[in-house]
């Protein structure tokens, strides 16, 4: 009888612990479902207390992992967003960092970061292409960079150049100015060559003498 009483007491103690665990798990599940914006978790009422406690505890662990995963992804996206905004001089993505992001929020954030990456690559390609042309024009015009912007453009550290919209527009303007100067110089040269040829004709300069000057 003593052994039986002890066994019954142990079973009742276990039942009490399981019921407490079930109550705690239900409470935590309700909180997690609200944070993760999920519907309430339905338990099988016909299952035993032991099975119910196990199912609830397993579900809590699954949702806790989902919560950690979402927060970790949000943190990673925010780091990428900050880096891209520093390079592109754009505003950070607006999202509530105090709560667990929904799957839709994360999907929007992913697409936003992907679009910023695409924009960064487009501007980087435009910068590299324009920089190459600008350097060639400066060499051709014997022009030394005399402003801080021009020095930033031709410096060797391409990663340090801010790819803001204003900088890209300024880069295009600089390229157009240099092209206009070259076009003006070419027009002047063409005019001077035509005058030289006319003077050669009037002075009846021999062809040999003309050839020696033509290389210039």
UniProtKB/TrEMBL annotation:
The keyword Coiled coil applies. GO terms for molecular function: microtubule binding. InterPro entries: MAP65_Ase1_PRC1 (IPR007145). One of its GO terms (biological process) is mitotic spindle midzone assembly. Residues 53-83 form a coiled coil. Keywords: Coiled coil. GO terms for cellular component: cytoplasm; mitotic spindle midzone. This is PRC1 regulator.
